[in-house]
Amino acid sequence: MTRNPIKSTVYGVASLLLLAGSGCSSTSLFGYIPAIPVERVPNSVLGRPREDMQEISLSRLRQRPRDVYQLGANDILGIYIETILGNAEEAPPVHFPEDGEQAPSIGFPVPIREDGTISLPLVPPLDVEGLTLAQATELIRKAYTIDKRLLPEGKDSIIVTLIKRRTYRVLVVREEAGASSSVRGREDEVIKRGAGFVLDLPAGENDLMHALNETGGLPGLDAKNEVLIVRGEGVDGKEWDKTVARLQGLRQPCTCPPPIPDPPNMTRIPLRFYPENVPEFVEQDIILNSGDIVMIESRDREKFYTGGVLSGGEHELPRDYDLDIMGAIAIAGGPVGSSGAVLSQSALNSRRGSGGTSGGSGPLPPTDAIVIRKLCDGSQLPIRVDLKRVYSDPRQRILIQPEDVVILKYKCIEETVNTALGLIQFNFLFNGFRGNGF
Predict the structure, then answer these.
(1) Is 353 in a helix, a strand, or coil?
(2) What is the mean pLDDT of each run of 10 residues along the chain (438 residues)?
(3) Which terminus, N or C, of the chain has the lesser number of Cβ atoms within 10 Å?
(4) Distance (Å, rounded) from C-alpha 327 to C-alpha 343?
(5) 303: burial class by Cβ within 10 Å (0-12, 13-18, 19+)?
């Protein structure tokens, strides 16, 4: 008895469609994943768009320029006092700065000590902290003219200039810039990135903006959009580590960890912020002193992962703009079809190779997307997105958050129909070969 190939094909297709109609979760290539529809997920879990943020004014990252320089400890003055420091027969010494950014100075070098005073012959120490050069000149004149024997009348030629401004030594650590290191024999695998700089910032330029400008500018796209300033004086680092460890030990199972405050000697400067959270730091917070550390951290943990029909991989999230489910799938190699559905990379390659309309697993692309989101207590929340509705329902275009796992899979009916159509195509192709005598 000859078997009818057409009947066999019809019976097979009918069986597959019957199985699909009865709920064929077992036939799905990746199995059934229980998940909550995205429209039922609270907004607090979905995350807030980064497009709502605004950039900070760069003028807040530097100190206000002073019209007149004010003296301080570690400045070096050039002082000439006729008959006291120098005489009329000899010209006063002239100093030309090496960097060329400061005017030449006249006089003998006199440093300002740590307490803000200067030591001159025949008079007690003079406090010049916070004075201008003109005010310091007048103070020295008064000190020497009180006693006419020290500086006779007509011999009060006094010159006070600035030989060298005081500087502040600051350490800048940037995890996103500079050199990188790799494992020997595996040069393509970077295991550490970053660079450190030691800066001597002159007075008046010892602020955050100048420190960033000297070391490469604002944080790069692979760094966090904030800057940390750790003060050289204040909290004992060892004691603070113990305090943080005790706070971490208070965490209870299945609960969010307790918030860890910043140490008192650290200032956090955000470069982008939401309008209702305008940063409250003041000018003194961005002025740097000797021993301070400026830290720019990398965004190593701001990544998302893909699986299922998509190629498994790890992908970096954009820093300054939002990435939704469609963008994430496109980054992972799943181009978007005209209907809003997504084609697997294998289907795309098959279509390109054949030049036809079918390829991969069939004409129906996968439209079932699961976003597994990690919550603060360590648990995971699977969120289901229907890719057929992404253009008609904006809520379906869920924003991707750090450490999300995006899984793309076929719905049961899609997988069944693709299998059925593949079976029809195979049977007709096979019977065509038999009819030709192969």
Answers:
(1) helix
(2) 50 51 47 85 90 94 92 94 80 79 86 95 93 94 80 73 94 76 51 81 94 92 92 77 78 77 89 94 95 92 89 89 92 63 49 38 79 89 92 91 92 78 63 53
(3) N
(4) 13
(5) middle
Q: Which helix (H) or strand (E) holds 412?
A: helix 412-435
- N-term to C-term CA, the chain: 21
Q: Are 210 and 170 in contact (CB under 8 A)?
A: no
| Distance (Å, whole) CA 281 – CA 24 | 59
> Rounded to an integer, what distance in angstroms lies between the CA atom of residue 125 and that of residue 346?
83
**Residue among 201, 262, 250 nearest 226 (CA):** 262
The beta-strand segments (E) located in 240-360 are: 266-270, 272-273, 293-296, 303-308, 313-316
Cα-flanking dihedrals φ and ψ of residue 172, to 5°? -115, 125
Task: Please give the sequence-ordered ranges of beta strands (E in DSSP) within 179-265, or none if there are none.
Answer: 180-183, 186-193, 195-202, 226-230
- Alpha-carbon Rg for the chain, nearest whole angstrom, is 36
State the pLDDT at residue 178: 56
- Listed in sequence order, the residues at least 6 apart from 6 whose beta carbon sits closer than 8 Å to its beta carbon are 427
The first and second tokens of residue 396, run together, are 């379906």
Measured distance CA(295)–CA(174) in Å, rounded = 6
CB atoms within 10 A of CB 308: 22
Contacts of 73 (CB under 8 A, 6+ apart): 112, 113, 114, 115, 116, 129, 166
The H-or-E segment that residue 117 falls in is strand 117-118
- Residues 303 and 316 sit within 8 Å (Cβ to Cβ): yes
* CB contact at 8 A, 75 and 115: no
The span from the CA of 374 to the CA of 389, in Å, is 24
Side chain identity, residue 119: S
C-alpha span between 21 and 26 (Å, rounded): 13
Rounded (10°) CA dihedral 159, 164, 168, 174: 150
- Extents of the domains making up the chain: 1-28+412-438, 29-49+322-410, 54-64+167-296, 76-164
76-164: CATH topology is wza like fold (3.30.1950)
CB atoms within 10 A of CB 260: 10
